[in-house]
Specification:
It comes from Halarchaeum salinum. This protein has 219 residues and is mainly β. It has helices spanning 81-85, 114-121, 144-147; strands at residues 14-17, 23-26, 44-45, 66-71, 77-80, 90-97, 102-113, 129-134, 139-143, 153-158, 161-162, 172-174, 187-193.
């Protein structure tokens, strides 16, 4: 698949040393594509990482867990936990923006980029949208061109450790160019769609585009 030009250049971001001593790709300058200030309008910077979710933390079993990719793809795949962890991965320094009005800067997430995952399955030419699925039944959606970016990570690591369960471990999506309800916690699959559909909060009036610099919180 040839991914759309999103305005970012792969592989040329600043490389820094992370908390665990490994290389980190710094993508905190992402905001320049969308606005003039790193802190989006209507947001306040916080140091802690609040816990917000649809319901409680779901159970998971690494022996039976699978990550399923299907829909408008060339090869539908189901990854066991070890298989998913074996995909090429990287650590990125990102900012995190919650629709409720707080932002946390300089988070270090480790995982598989969306472009790596999509390359692994191949994307049909008529695919236009992506639906994310999670262990707790949560869903969220984005246009394909908003997902097919190196900054979108399926992350299992946070600040040098595993992502805590309450923050979406073992695996969550992070979307630094969108409000964080687009980053499904406890994610266990994606479906490529040939026409748009709506996830849990989108069905309840939240924005599909969710651009923090445009304050696109609600439809």
């Amino acid at each position: 698949m040839v991914f759309p030009d999103t305005g970012t250049l792969r592989g040329v971001r600043t490389v820094a040393v992370g908390m665990d001593g490994t290389d980190v790709r710094d993508v905190t300058d992402l905001y320049r594509e969308f606005g003039d200030e790193r802190l989006p309008p209507g947001q306040r910077e916080v140091e802690r990482f609040p816990v917000l979710s649809m319901e409680g933390t779901p159970a998971w079993d690494p022996e039976t867990w699978t990550f399923d990719v299907g829909g408008a793809v060339e090869t539908a795949r189901s990854f066991a936990w070890d298989e998913f962890r074996a995909l090429p991965s990287e650590t990125q320094r990102q900012d995190f923006h919650c629709v409720t009005g707080w932002s946390k800067f300089d988070c270090e997430f480790t995982g598989v980029t969306a472009t790596t995952l999509l390359d692994a399955v191949g994307v049909d030419s008529d695919a236009v949208h992506v639906m994310f699925h999670a262990l707790d039944g949560y869903t969220t959606d984005l246009p394909l061109d908003a997902v097919a970016r190196d900054e979108v990570l399926f992350a299992w690591g946070y600040d040098g450790d595993d992502i805590p369960r309450e923050h979406g471990g073992p695996l969550r999506v992070v979307t630094p160019h969108k409000y964080a309800y687009k980053g499904a916690k406890w994610v266990d699959g994606v479906t490529l769609l040939t026409e748009p559909d709506r996830g849990y909060w989108e069905q309840r009036g939240y924005s599909v585009t969710a651009d923090p610099w445009g304050e696109e919180r609600y439809s």
